[in-house]
Design goal:
Helix content of chain B: over 70%
Strand order of the largest sheet of chain A: 1-2
Distance between the termini of chain B: 32 Å
Strand order of the largest sheet of chain B: 1-2
Mean pLDDT of chain A: 85
Radius of gyration of chain B: 21 Å
Radius of gyration of chain A: 28 Å
Low-confidence stretches of chain B: none
Largest sheet of chain A: 2 strands, antiparallel
Oligomer: heterotrimer
Number of strands of chain A: 6
Number of helices of chain B: 21
Helix content of chain A: over 70%
Chains: A mainly alpha (663), B mainly alpha (481), C mainly alpha (204)
Low-confidence stretches of chain A: none
Chain lengths: 663, 481, 204
């Protein structure tokens, strides 16, 4: 098999699996569809790993392959092609691995769901789309993948389409992402306009050429053309990677099934924005203004969303806000030109966040779809594997030394500290404080869920839909299809940072994909101080992040293990802050007021007056009526009489003769 | 005349011989083993394709080669059209076998008549003189007249055949009259000589234009363009679905080739004249076809009017008289034939024993009865409506571009508007399939070969759209664009 | 006026009037006979053009075979004439308008700009003595027009097939012997031995 075939197989196998599981539902059956999907994604993972192996150990060159030229219009080639460098391979491997784990996990989680096969079809389709996105070598395919993962994401958020809230959440995700996509599309259009090509290599090669070009968008204000392009592209990333203020859809997306939250809304799809910016590093490097913008948005998200996580009670929402906050960290890293640190954190985060989500899912099934942490507690005895793996995930998330999250997060903080970009002080304090908050809400979750006394009651006769705090059966450990993925995800959550920090961050392993201008290279300084992962961990004990993390741990332990009343005390003492956080800074309300209600009002007005009256009544129905009438009239001509037909022909002949011969 | 030259017509000879062989073989094959005839017909097509592909004239570096004293021509355009005729006729045979078996009409005549019609189509495609064009046309028409009345018990079939025959004879008469004018003015039957004679003539071309009008009328009837379209709805409805399938798919290829040969090879110098005539016919077809289709409740009639509008689009591609335009038109006609074959294949599929599923209501709730079939039909309908990504979109796009190249903005705009109008009735089918309750719960079953072919046919709608480049390139390069 | 011209005008006049009569007379038999007359006249005009073979073929084939067959059919089928004529008067005005328009256009073309002047179509030189029209035709048919000739043959074949396909049918209740089956018949097909239990004795 040629390399091209293998590379083609990697995305196409999940696609084929999606088609089989989705279309041949009757033929393959329930078990058939999960086998097909797992096999497709599994082989795809193995092939990705093989490519990774080739690159690491056998020194395979970067591959830029055009698979198919879709069309050529006005000199622009619209192509399907793969750009396989280290960045791509890393993403491919992470995506397929997490996807595979989620596939296996789904067998247990969705066991009784009527949409079982549909679900497998969707997640395999998602894997295909995500792979197309990361493997792309041009903007068009990137956009295709971008929209495709978005589409699958909406489908999956609204997977339980009989729930009102799920439909609403899907709609919200769709609308918010439209805003981002609009920016993204503008960005791509600007790229096409200024470079005349959609191919990465061509665009990146030509990028320095337009560095000095300016454009006047608002009279009196000159903008760097490259800044406009980058900010437009980044708006796309803000939508997809849920950066403030376009983050509002992600917490609501938790309406989807938990495996989806793990795969799409934590590990892979939401990181597409991060990946895209890293991929576009040759463009972003040229614009300091755009990078500052990126960094500040990330800083706001990292700190602000972490704070909201503290007051949430829904276990999945806590993790969702934690995801937002971690995405903020990655964005900050992008903003200070530490692209490889962002990608590194993306990777470690994919493992431990998927682990946490799947652990939460395990708890949720044990408690019969109870997601409120106030009705949990003490589950460590019944669910030891879930408990231990949740600890692993938590330690990785808070950045405990030697865990994967430690290496990636500390590198980001160090990079921000090194940076001299405009506003980097704000970002530094945000990410630093973020450590404390992360630690606090993570342990809060852990304690409320697994430690202390159970706050639920087992009542066998509680019926199908028991009230909150009552479960029908005593919780027990989940089946092996659930726990095995947990264990498999826990391993990289522990070791991956230790193993890869050297090559990924400091040995320039990603340098074939990422370009950093010398004066922006914050990681270079960090590299000088880097003397192996062990030394880094030892060194960390004397630094602020470590102690902030310990503080968070101590606070959480004190409050939630020993003085639960303290939490309520703060709640009452600081009602303003609490309400602010509880209501997530009133973003939803703001949007509701500013855009939705107004646009609903405008929309309603338009609908009543313009649409119903003019367009519907006049144009649409009117034209439909007109067409209908015309059609009915024309129909009469088709009388069925031969001589009518012959007459029509003769009339036509005479008509044409009259026009061309006589006149 | 040397024999190597005659071998250019080897595909035609092969089809003729096999049609006669099948005619005779029928006498020796018992009724229950008629599947053999089907296999023989399929083999005929396969080998015809192989013989066509091995066109040696190309290897000699020639763009085209003529035989029979210039009355027969082989060129890449003809080869591509013939190959697609074979391919689509193969699809037609698979669908038709299922239909004919179900309706107890599985007779060898169907195969012999369609093969002779195919021979006529091939002759028309390769015709390089007025005589060959006329004879090819007659051969095709005569076979199809008989095919329309193939169901001898059906009154509608006989009536439709009668109408088709009378109107077709009229059209043939007009075509002949026009040819006689052209012959009178140029003194030659050979298209190449005609072209030379016209360019040498100076000044008045009254007789030529006069003849041209009749030629265009004959051509318009063949394609079914307004106002020479009246036969189409009646014939489509009256003929058995298997025959409609054939008529809607194969002869259109010949119609396109005939238009190209007559108008471009022969009368290329009258381009401004025929461009105007065709643009009026095109817009009439697109408008009337799309409008009338809305009012139909019978899906065969609906598809008939949709055919009329598609023919308008095919004419649009001819207008600029450039290689790009002809390529676009040829691409359209191939795509149209595939779409049409698929649509009638679906009608055949839904036809229960003895009752044709010719009402739109028969498609109600198809998704609940069988999701895959509904998906296939949806793909075909999307493609016919010209929804992007599906192949029909690219076909429409290219011919509209051709109209713009010809400077006919008004035509391009009306084509766009009326394809939107047309989308309505295609999407109505989809709505019926997905959102309405089925009238019957009876399961749909079809033999394996039928399922395989219709799945392929449906997927081609998507596949050729996603990978649209190669077929477009083939069509464009056939004209040297 | 030379004699050929007089002959031409006479026969064309006869031909056109016969053509009009074909579609106007009420009786189909007369109509067919007028058609025969039209064929005769056109054959005569062909003779004027020194196309003897075509003239003779026209008479032999069309008059001798086709029209006679046609007359037979018309006489055997008893066609009711009234309904056929019903529409005639009703649509006559429209028909006349169309016909006049058409004729006007044709005449305009013929008269305008002189495309159809005699000068545009010079009289061909007369054939040499001993020229065989038949031979010349044959030579053309089997060389230049070989493909057309073959195609025409195929068209006739298709016509035969079509005619048979549309009309040959097995009648219900038809009694016909199939000798092949009679010869091949086996004993078992004709005689069936039935094994029966002896009937129980009736009554007491």
């Amino acid at each position: 098999m040629s390399l091209k075939t293998i590379l083609l197989l990697i995305p196409l196998l999940p696609l084929a699996a999606a088609a089989i599981a989705g279309l041949l539902r009757k033929q393959v059956g329930r078990a058939g569809s999960h086998w097909v999907a797992i096999l497709g994604v599994g082989v795809s993972f193995l092939l990705s790993a093989w490519v990774l192996y080739q690159q690491i150990f056998l020194g395979m060159e970067t591959q830029n392959i055009t698979i198919y030229t879709w069309m050529i219009s006005g000199g622009v080639h619209f192509e399907v092609g793969f750009l396989i460098d280290h960045l791509t391979t890393l993403m491919m491997t992470v995506v397929t691995f997490v996807s595979l784990m989620v596939h296996i996990y789904t067998i247990g989680y969705m066991a009784t769901d009527p949409g079982y096969q549909r679900f497998f079809s969707y997640i395999a389709l998602f894997t295909f789309s995500m792979l197309m996105l990361v493997m792309s070598n041009n903007f068009m395919q990137l956009f295709f993948g971008w929209e495709a993962v978005g589409l699958v994401s909406y489908l999956l958020i609204g997977f339980w389409f009989d729930r009102e809230s799920a439909i609403y959440a899907g709609l919200k995700a769709f609308l918010v992402n439209r805003v981002g996509d609009f920016g993204f599309l503008l960005g791509i259009a600007a790229v096409l306009y200024s470079f005349g090509s959609l191919d990465y290599a061509t665009v990146f090669a030509a990028a320095p050429g337009i560095a000095g070009k300016t454009v006047t968008l608002i009279p009196g204000m000159e903008w760097q053309w490259i800044t406009v392009i980058c900010i437009c592209l980044f708006i796309g990333a803000m939508g997809k990677s849920a950066q403030a203020p376009l983050h509002v859809w992600l917490p609501d997306s938790m309406e989807g099934p938990t495996p989806i939250s793990a795969l799409i809304h934590a590990a892979t799809m939401v990181t597409a924005g991060i990946f895209m910016v890293a991929r576009m590093s040759p463009l972003f490097e040229l614009s300091d203004a755009a990078l500052s913008f990126v960094m500040l948005i990330g800083a706001v998200t990292a700190l602000g969303m972490g704070l909201v996580g503290i007051v949430q009670n829904d276990i999945k929402r806590v993790i969702a806000y934690s995801t937002l906050s971690q995405l903020g960290y990655m964005t900050v890293a992008l903003g200070v030109s530490a692209y490889s640190a962002a990608i590194f954190h993306l990777m470690t985060h994919a493992f431990f966040k998927a682990l946490l989500f799947l652990g939460a899912g395990s708890v949720i099934i044990a408690l019969h779809h109870q997601q409120d942490m106030r009705y949990m507690g003490g589950l460590r005895k019944q669910m030891p594997i879930t408990w231990i793996t949740a600890w692993v995930g938590t330690l990785a998330l808070i950045g405990f030394p030697f865990m994967s999250g430690f290496y990636s997060k500390d590198s980001i903080i160090e990079a921000v500290a090194e940076s001299s970009r405009w506003g980097s002080e704000v970002a530094y304090w945000s990410v630093l404080l973020g450590v404390l908050i992360t630690s606090f809400y993570s342990f809060r979750l852990l304690y409320l869920t697994f430690h202390g006394q159970p706050r639920y009651r087992v009542d066998v006769g509680a019926g199908e839909h028991p009230p909150d705090g009552v479960v029908q059966h005593a919780p027990h450990e989940s089946p092996w299809v659930v726990t095995v993925p947990l264990i498999l995800l826990a391993i990289p959550s522990i070791v991956i940072g230790y193993l890869l920090i050297g090559p990924v961050l400091f040995e320039g392993w990603l340098s074939d994909a990422i370009s950093v201008l010398p004066h922006n290279n914050v990681l270079e300084h960090a590299a000088e101080n880097f003397h192996g992962p062990v030394a880094m961990a030892k060194h960390a004990i004397g630094t602020a992040p470590f102690w902030l993390m310990i503080t968070g741990f101590v606070l959480a332990t004190f409050i939630y293990q020993f003085r639960p009343a303290l939490a309520d005390f703060f709640k009452q003492k600081l009602p303003g802050i609490y309400r602010l956080l509880e209501n997530k800074y009133y973003f939803d309300e703001l949007y509701q007021k500013l855009f939705i209600s107004r646009s609903v009002r405008i929309g309603r007005g338009l609908w009543k007056k313009v649409d119903a009256g003019v367009i519907d009544g006049g144009l649409v129905n009117g034209s439909a009526r007109l067409m209908g009438n015309l059609a009915a009239r024309i129909r009469v001509w088709q009388s069925g009489y031969l001589f009518h037909y012959a007459f029509a022909m003769i009339a036509g002949l005479i008509g044409i003769l009259a026009i061309w011969v006589v006149l | 005349m040397n024999t190597t030259n005659m071998l250019l017509a080897a595909p035609e000879f092969w089809v003729l011989i096999m049609a006669c062989v099948i005619l005779i073989a029928d006498l020796f094959i018992r009724e229950e083993r008629r599947g053999i005839i089907h296999m023989m017909a399929m083999i005929t097509l396969v080998f015809a394709a192989i013989i066509t592909v091995r066109g040696d004239y190309l290897s000699e570096g020639l763009r085209s080669a003529t035989a029979f004293n210039g009355s027969f021509i082989r060129d890449p355009m003809g080869d591509v059209l013939k190959l697609f005729s074979f391919f689509i006729l193969g699809i037609v045979y698979v669908y038709a076998k299922f239909y004919l078996r179900q309706f107890r009409m599985f007779r060898t005549d169907f195969y012999t008549l369609t093969l002779f019609a195919l021979l006529g189509v091939m002759l028309l495609i390769s015709a390089n003189s007025l005589v060959t064009i006329y004879l090819g046309l007659e051969l095709t028409s005569l076979s199809t007249y008989a095919l329309v009345a193939f169901d001898r018990e059906s009154k509608r079939g006989s009536e439709a055949a009668m109408k088709y025959f009378v109107l077709g004879s009229m059209a043939s008469g007009m075509l002949l009259y026009g040819m006689s004018m052209i012959y009178g003015a140029t003194g030659s039957m050979d298209l190449a000589d005609i072209s030379v004679a016209i360019s040498n003539q100076d000044g008045d071309s009254m007789i030529l234009v006069f003849g041209l009008v009749f030629l265009v009328v004959g051509l318009a009837f063949k394609l079914g363009v307004v106002p020479f379209h009246m036969w189409i709805p009646d014939v489509y409805e009256g003929a058995p679905a298997a025959v409609t399938l054939f008529i809607s798919a194969i002869p259109k290829m010949a119609g396109f080739a005939m238009a190209y040969r007559l108008l471009y090879t022969g009368l290329g110098d009258l381009h401004t004249d025929w461009q105007q005539m065709l643009s009026i016919l095109a817009v009439l077809s697109i408008v009337l076809g799309n409008l009338a289709a809305i009012a139909q409740t019978n899906i065969k009639r609906m598809l008939a009017y949709s055919t009329i509008s598609h023919m308008g689009f095919i004419l649009m591609g001819l207008l600029p008289g450039t290689a790009d335009g002809f390529g676009a038109s040829m691409y359209y006609v191939i795509v149209y034939s595939l779409m049409s074959a698929g649509a009638f294949g679906m009608i055949i599929l839904l036809s229960a024993r003895g009752v044709e599923a010719e009402q739109l209501d028969d498609f109600k709730g198809l998704n609940q009865r069988n999701g895959w079939y509904a998906a296939i039909m949806a793909m075909i309908m999307f493609s016919m409506a010209g929804v992007p990504v599906f192949v029909g979109f690219f076909a429409k796009w290219l011919v509209i571009k051709a109209a713009l190249d010809a400077g006919l903005l008004w035509l391009a705009i009306s084509a766009v508007i009326f394809s939107v109008v047309g989308a309505f009735y295609y999407l109505r089918v989809i709505k019926l399939m997905y959102f309405d309750e089925p009238l019957t719960e009876s399961p749909i079953d079809a033999p394996v070969d039928f399922n395989a072919v219709i799945s392929l046919n449906g997927l081609l709608m998507l596949g050729l759209g996603v990978f649209s480049g190669s077929l477009i390139a083939v069509c464009m390069s056939a004209f040297g664009a | 006026m030379p004699i050929t011209e007089i002959v031409f005008y006479v026969f064309s006049l006869v031909m056109v009037s016969a053509g009009v009569a074909v579609i106007t007379v009420r009786n189909p038999v007369y109509s067919a006979l007028f058609l025969v007359l039209a064929f005769f006249s056109s054959a005569a005009i062909w003779l004027l053009l020194e196309a003897e073979f075509l003239a003779i073929v026209l008479i032999l084939v069309y008059v001798g075979a086709v029209m006679v067959l046609f007359l037979f059919v018309v006489m055997m089928l008893d066609i009711n004439l009234t309904p056929l004529k019903e529409g005639f008067i009703r649509y006559l005005p429209v028909g006349i308008v169309v016909a006049v328009l058409m004729a006007a256009e044709l005449l305009l073309v013929i008269w305008s700009k002189g495309s159809f002047d005699q000068g545009a179509f010079p009289i061909p030189p007369p054939n040499p003595v001993g020229f065989s029209n038949t031979k010349a035709l044959g030579e053309l048919l089997f060389t230049n027009y070989l493909l057309a000739f073959e195609a025409a043959g195929v068209i006739l074949l298709v016509a035969i097939i079509a005619a048979i396909a549309l009309t040959l049918r097995k009648r219900v209740g038809e009694k016909r012997q199939n000798p092949a089956m009679q010869v091949r018949v086996q004993r078992d097909e004709r005689v069936r031995l039935v094994k029966m239990d002896p009937e129980p004795r009736q009554g007491n």
